[in-house]
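Example record

The entry below shows one chain as it appears in the dataset: sequence first, then structure tokens.
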Amino acid sequence: MGFEMRVYAWIAMTILVICLSPCLSLEETNGGFCNLYEGSWVYDKTYPLYDSSTCPHIRGEYDCLKYGRVDKEYLKYRWQPSNCNLPRFDGKSFLTKFKGKQIMFIGDSVSLNQWQSLICLLHSAVPQARVIQQGGEPISNYTFQDYGVSIVVFHTTYLVDIEVEKIGRVLKLNSIKNGNIWKNMDVLVFNTWLWWYRRGPKQPWDYIQLGDKIVKDMDRMQAFRYGLTTWANWVNTQVDTSKTKVLFQGISPMHYNGAQWHEPGVTNCARETTPINGPSYSQGLPPASYVLQSMLQKVTKPIHLLNITALSELRKDAHPSSHNVFHGMDCTHWCVAGVPDTWNELLYASI
């Protein structure tokens, strides 16, 4: 191959990698490409996509209207990519296209948040559909019988294992035993981060094991990196991506500090009713996002980053705050209906 041909091949490969790496691009009518994750929130009177009061089985953590939220403006914002349109969620089309398939969300309570949103989106499209619910720790399954579509959530805070041994609970950074269940699904949507920095009574382990070494603690970001490396190796060696679509959800942001949106005197999201103005977040992405993106480069199989971080950072208004079953201040999770519906519209466009 001559020099000129090698240059053209290198350029073509670079373009391919850019389009397949953590961004979703759709072709525009003018022949260009756009990134669905770059854009802004726009007010849209046709939103929300469903009435949460008609959706059965929303957990009390996410059902903001039921637990007293009065303002509803947060429901009226739609994500608008800069150079193309995000397809509006079509529940019947989703169920028809995935007839006989199993979609599993794997992760912490943020995964559960998105799972609940998808169930509501689908239920609103086919409210009379026969449904089988099967629940229990760590797996909950919601199957639309008429379509044979199962929407499953597998609760795991770290993706890697925690095992009880003589010395106590051990977080094993090199071990993923539940993978034998996961890899049989048709679509996998992974998520983890929320628990990696927890300490004290809320920390669900006593020791960390990396290889043959057991320690009392270690740098949490480094532990996160090791855990994701184990996950990446598991995907590379165990998942048949010709049969199973693999996605990883970006880091879901929290809004406990008003300095993030230029109001340093504000200590939480409680009184926020509108998104942050503009297409970008002045504080930048959380450090965990950069670790995640670097680790995803270790996956040699085709995967997709559901890159919800930057667009969700703008939504300081869409958390439950005290409008939840516990009445505690929650600026971590998201109201349903709300922002997770957009995550599922992006998921729908991705798969």
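Notes for this example: The longest helix spans residues 220-238. Confidence is low (pLDDT under 50) at residues 1-31.
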